[in-house]
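Dear colleague,

Thank you for sharing your sequence with our group. We've completed the structure prediction you requested, and as agreed, I am returning the results in plain text so they can be pasted directly into your records. Please verify that the sequence below matches your submission; if there's any discrepancy, let me know and we will rerun it promptly.
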Amino acid sequence: MSKLNRFNIFIILLMAVLTSCEKEIEFSEQYDSGIAVYAIADPGQPFSMRISRSFTVNDNPSVVFSNYSKYYSELDSLYKAKIVIADAHVEVTVNGVDKYTMQYNPTNPYAYTCDYMPKVGDNISVYITAPGYKDVSASATIEQPKKIEILRTEVVYQEIGDKQAYVVTNPLTGGLEPFGEDSVMRLTLKMTDPVGEHNFYRLRVCSISERTRVFFGDHTSTFYSLTDVFTSDDIIFSDNMLTKPFGYWKEGFSNVFDDHLFNGQEYTFTVETRKPLGENQHVIVELQTISQDLYYFLKSYLLFRISTDDVYMTPIGLYSNIRDGWGIMGALSYDRHIIYY
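Please find the predicted structure tokens below.
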């Protein structure tokens, strides 16, 4: 047998081996569903918590609808039956002393409430039990709010451009309308970060106006037009992980940040927000001092929301601080200012 023939036979045998070794490997490990929690302790707001069942991919409830309107009429009842946990026992301990029991609110099927009003400095622990689930627990502390100063405000011309980029739904007509005018408010802000602390922040800049529409003859009604989207070229808002825009937020922009660039220092920066159409136009500037766990949760959520429609992106896990469960128990405090146009 020639060397060439022996080589051809070797190649044929090798190909047979490579193409005949396919084997299906079943993934048999099972994960039980657990308790999912969402709670943010906010001073001045009664403490509430959303509790639901978490699902694995394989046992997530699904439903097929025959028409679009049926989706809206029946989807909520499906999730009430499959996801809501209405019989949980929720105990809240504040500063290791005061105890509260949260009650299920049937008018808001995911919510548990109590008469505890969070305050700055409170350390809050929650312990949740429910039949058929592992017990879960979490804790958070409300930090002292850090101050932000409004150094300068000015309204400058800036063309809105593509009107479809800034639209609002009129709840009275259901139609889309331009949200803003060809102007922005430019705000120069200063914050002072304490020395010797690692602090975490979220900045909210909300443009708000009142809109009035006439319908059914002479009857009028007022609704509010609001956006919390703002822009800035400052490095503290840069997040290279956010590789795509989301909604009206720019690519690479995050309003959640920490103090690693200005720890223990004063820091001045500029932001811009679109002037809204309507009356009583004003801007709310709110610097939130957030707990570390809430910071990591929000960062993971910002990344998660741009990945859900990208099949090529590595799956993103949402950060959780719920022991033996899922979700977030966070805390925030804030310094808030209102500026009128």
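Summary note from our side: The helical segments are 3-19, 68-82, 292-305.

Kind regards,
the structure core
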